[in-house]
Specification:
Layout (H helix, E strand, L loop, with lengths): L1 H29 L22 H17 L4 H11 L1 H12 L2 H9 L10 H6 L5 H12 L15 H21 L5 H15 L2 H9 L6 H21 L16 H8 L17
Length: 276
């Protein structure tokens, strides 16, 4: 009798130890800023955290509330995107597979990080080239591609890369669309991305983002920038099918034409980044 009781108890303790181990890893990852290593998990890819559908739902709700309270919580926005975007990621993956350049990206898996960018060469490119304008965007808005978090909660290795690629292409879209990183610029890009990708995170940002804009910028969004962003997002070529790392020297105007993206109807200043 005691043996029958001990075995379930032992299994219970083992499960608790696993949960505690995972909790420690998540705490280190999100609280202390520690670099994640494979010593925590044997996942589908480095940094992967396996979660059940219920856990994903809880993460989606919690991250959504946090992102609504503070849209600059990029970690929470990232978790929301990963836990709600499966169907959209499958659709984007299929578009990449069916495009020669997109398929090459899926095979080669390039990353957009400071360590992969030749900033000196990009600075030497002429004004109007995509690489030079992207570098100017980073400088003007004081951002870096290294702030894009690694994917953790997507339970498919290839789909995880698609999400990672979308995440790292985001600043390139800001450059192509001529939008700064203030709230108006972010909302305009989210409207484009919602129409382009179908990711629920983008749709939520497109719907809730305007609530943080003042009256004048809200009017500008609904009368000009919003319709332009939606129209261009729907008709543009899939933005994940461009091997941007091989396009730095290309004219930004030529790249816009290739993607079927029109220039913005108005110029939005990068000043006062956090002003609404």
């Amino acid at each position: 009798m005691s043996l029958c009781l001990c075995r379930p108890l032992q299994r219970f303790v083992q499960r608790q130890n696993v949960l505690i181990s995972k909790a420690v890893c998540v705490h280190k990852l999100y609280s202390s800023g520690s670099v994640y290593t494979d010593s925590c998990y044997d996942g589908l890819y480095p940094g992967h955290i396996q979660t059940t559908p219920i856990q994903k739902a809880l993460l989606a709700v919690g991250s959504g509330v946090a992102a609504l309270q503070n849209p600059y919580r990029h970690d929470m926005v990232a978790v929301l995107g990963e836990t709600t975007g499966y169907l959209a990621l499958v659709n984007l993956r299929d578009k990449m597979r069916n495009d020669p350049e997109g398929y090459t990206i899926l095979i080669e898996r390039p990353r957009i990080r400071l360590s992969t960018l030749d900033l000196k060469e990009m600075a030497s490119l002429p004004d109007g080239s995509f690489g030079r304008e992207y570098l100017r965007f980073l400088e003007d808005n004081r951002v870096t591609p290294d702030t894009r978090a690694d994917v953790k909660f997507v339970d498919d290795e290839e789909l995880a890369y698609v999400m990672q690629r979308y995440r790292e292409v985001h600043d390139l879209l800001h450059t192509l669309l001529g939008m700064p990183t203030n709230m108006l610029g972010e909302v305009a890009v989210k409207w484009f991305e919602a129409a382009q990708t179908g990711l629920p995170m983008c749709a939520l940002g497109a719907v809730l983002g305007p609530l943080r804009l003042n009256a004048s910028r809200l009017q500008l969004l609904f009368t000009s920038l919003g319709p332009w962003a939606l129209q261009n997002g729907r008709r543009a070529r899939c933005v994940l099918n461009i091997f941007y790392e091989r396009r730095w020297a290309q004219s930004i105007e030529d790249l816009r034409q290739e993607l079927n993206i029109e220039p913005p109807p108005v110029i939005v200043s990068a000043a006062n980044k956090r002003n609404t």
